[in-house]
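Progress note, sequence design subtask.
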């Protein structure tokens, strides 16, 4: 899964999804779609953090 977005951009997208879901008036199909997108973005953020951790560790 290639991602050209920065960590901050992905985190913002994830926050936007959470806000949308918290409204409570999202239809079920849209909720499932947003949840799936959120899971993917969360994995991307986790990978970006892990990559940053590796780079920092290697530089020490």
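Output:
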């Amino acid at each position: 899964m290639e991602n050209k977005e920065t960590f901050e951009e992905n985190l913002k997208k994830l926050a936007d999804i959470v806000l949308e879901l918290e409204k409570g008036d999202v239809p079920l199909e849209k909720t499932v779609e947003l949840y799936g997108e959120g899971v993917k973005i969360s994995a991307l953020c986790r990978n970006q953090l892990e990559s940053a951790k590796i780079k920092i560790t290697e530089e020490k």
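The chain has a mean pLDDT of 92. Work on this subtask will continue into the next period as scheduled.
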